[in-house]
């Protein structure tokens, strides 16, 4: 699965949460990794 941060962080989070509805069998930990991997570099660095 590939998901990329393009707009605001709120738009990214909202779209991500919308997609979660369609992926109920994927574990939360995996989904959080996908979320973090798709963030813009500057924001991703703040999470580290």
Q: Explain this structure to me?
A:
The N and C termini lie far apart (22 Å). The protein has one domain (9-47). The model has no long low-confidence stretch (mean pLDDT 82). The chain is globular and about 30 Å long. The chain is built from three helices and no strands. It has 48 residues and is mainly alpha-helical.
Taking the alpha carbons of the first and last residues, their distance comes to 22 Å
Number of domains: 1
In sequence order, what are the helices and strands, one letter per element?
A: HHH
Q: Biggest sheet, in brief?
A: none
State the helix count.
3
Q: What level of helicity do the residues show?
A: 55-70%
The fraction of residues in strands falls at: under 5%
Low-confidence stretches: none
The number of strands is: 0
Radius of gyration: 11 Å
Instruction: Name the overall outline.
Output: globular
The helix/strand class is mainly alpha
For the residues shown, what is the average pLDDT? 82
């Amino acid at each position: 699965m590939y998901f990329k941060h393009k707009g605001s962080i709120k738009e990214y989070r909202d779209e991500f949460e919308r997609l979660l509805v369609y992926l109920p069998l994927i574990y939360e930990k995996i989904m959080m990794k996908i979320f973090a991997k798709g963030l813009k570099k500057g924001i991703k660095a703040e999470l580290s």
